[in-house]
C-alpha cells in the first residue's frame, strides 16, 4: 500500500514536470521543471519499487540506479544550462510594472 | 599521503563488491573472473579513483555517516521544492532571475557537491562557477540581494558540507 502511494506520488511529479515543459517560456525555466521534477519523481518511483520488492538483491540494484541518478542528473542539466549561457541566450524575465 | 598499496586494495574492494551486486553469482568461475578483472581495472584506475591527498582520512567513518545524513536532508529538501515547483507550473506565477552567490567552502569536492545539490533542488540551477562565486538561475527569485539570496539558496547544504569538508 505504501509502495503504491510512493509510485503514485512519483507519477504525479513526472506529469507536472512534463506539463511545465509545455507551459514555461524559455530554456532555463523549462530545464527547471523537466529535469528536476522528473528527478524527484524518479526517486519516489524507485523508493516505491524498493518498498514493494522488500530487501533483496533486486532492490540493491535499484539502489545503485538511484545513486547514479543522483550523481548524473545535476551534471547533465548543469551542462545544458551552461552551454545555453555561453551561447548568450538571455533568461526570460517578468515584465516589471513601472 | 597514502601508500599505493592501500589505495589499490581499496579500489579493488569497491570494484569487487560492485561485481558481486551486479552478477549475483557465487560460482567459483564467476568469482575468479570478477577478481581478475577487478584487479586489472584497479591497477589501471586507482590513481584517479583515490587521489594521493584525498580519500581515506582517519575520520573516514565519520565522513561517511555525515554524507548519509546529508543525502537524506537533500532528498527531503528536493521533495519540498518539487511541491513548490508543481504549484508554480499550475499557476504560472514565476519570476526568474540569475543571482550570484558566494560560498565559504574551500575544497574542490565540497564545491562540486554544493553546486550539484543546488542544481538537484528544483527551482535553482547552477549555471557557472568562477572561483568561489556561483551563478544560479532561480525560478522564483524572492530577492536579488547578494547575501540574502545566498542564505535562501544554500540554506542547510553549506552547513552540512562545511562540517564534512571544511
UniProtKB/TrEMBL annotation, chain A:
Domain of life: Bacteria
Regions that span the bilayer: 6-25, 61-85
This protein's UniProt keywords: Membrane, Transmembrane, Transmembrane helix
Coiled coil: none
An example Gene Ontology molecular-function term: sodium:proton antiporter activity
UniProt keyword Protein biosynthesis, yes or no: no
PANTHER family in alphabetical order: ANTIPORTER SUBUNIT MNHG2-RELATED
Protein name: Cation:proton antiporter
Organism: Candidatus Sediminicultor quintus
TrEMBL record, chain B:
Cellular localization per UniProt: Cell membrane
Top-rank lineage group of the source organism: Bacteria
Topology versus the membrane: Multi-pass membrane protein
This protein's GO CC annotations: plasma membrane
Molecular function as annotated in GO: monoatomic cation transmembrane transporter activity
Swiss-Prot/TrEMBL keywords: Cell membrane, Membrane, Transmembrane, Transmembrane helix
Stored InterPro entries: Cation_antiport_E (IPR002758)
Main localisation: membrane
Regions that span the bilayer: 33-50, 62-83
Keyword Transferase belongs to the record: no
Family: Belongs to the CPA3 antiporters (TC 2.A.63) subunit E family.
Stated name of the protein: Cation:proton antiporter
The organism's taxonomic lineage, starting at the top: Bacteria, Pseudomonadati, Atribacterota, Candidatus Phoenicimicrobiia, Candidatus Pheonicimicrobiales
Amino acid at each position: 500500500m505504501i509502495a503504491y502511494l510512493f509510485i503514485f506520488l512519483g507519477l504525479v511529479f513526472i506529469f507536472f514536470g512534463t506539463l511545465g515543459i509545455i507551459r514555461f517560456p524559455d530554456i532555463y525555466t523549462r530545464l527547471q521543471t523537466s529535469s528536476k521534477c522528473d528527478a524527484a519523481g524518479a526517486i519516489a518511483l524507485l523508493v516505491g519499487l524498493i518498498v514493494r520488492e522488500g530487501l533483496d538483491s533486486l532492490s540493491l540494484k535499484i539502489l545503485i540506479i538511484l545513486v547514479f541518478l543522483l550523481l548524473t542528473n545535476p551534471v547533465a542539466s548543469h551542462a545544458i544550462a551552461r552551454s545555453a549561457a555561453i551561447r548568450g541566450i538571455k533568461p526570460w524575465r517578468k515584465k516589471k510594472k513601472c | 599521503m597514502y601508500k599505493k598499496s592501500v589505495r589499490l586494495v581499496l579500489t579493488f574492494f569497491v570494484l569487487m563488491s560492485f561485481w558481486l551486486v551486479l552478477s549475483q553469482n557465487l560460482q567459483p568461475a564467476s568469482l575468479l573472473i570478477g577478481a581478475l578483472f577487478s584487479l586489472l581495472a584497479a591497477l589501471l584506475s586507482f590513481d584517479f579513483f583515490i587521489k594521493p591527498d584525498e580519500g581515506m582520512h582517519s575520520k573516514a567513518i565519520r565522513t561517511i555517516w555525515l554524507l548519509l545524513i546529508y543525502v537524506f536532508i537533500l532528498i527531503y529538501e528536493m521533495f519540498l521544492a518539487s511541491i513548490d515547483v508543481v504549484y508554480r507550473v499550475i499557476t504560472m506565477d514565476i519570476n526568474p532571475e540569475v543571482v550570484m552567490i558566494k560560498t565559504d567552502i574551500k575544497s574542490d569536492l565540497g564545491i562540486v557537491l554544493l553546486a550539484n545539490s543546488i542544481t538537484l533542488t528544483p527551482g535553482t540551477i547552477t549555471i557557472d562557477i568562477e572561483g568561489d562565486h556561483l551563478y544560479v538561475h532561480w525560478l522564483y527569485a524572492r530577492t536579488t540581494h547578494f547575501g540574502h539570496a545566498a542564505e535562501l539558496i544554500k540554506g542547510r547544504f553549506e552547513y552540512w558540507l562545511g562540517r564534512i569538508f571544511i
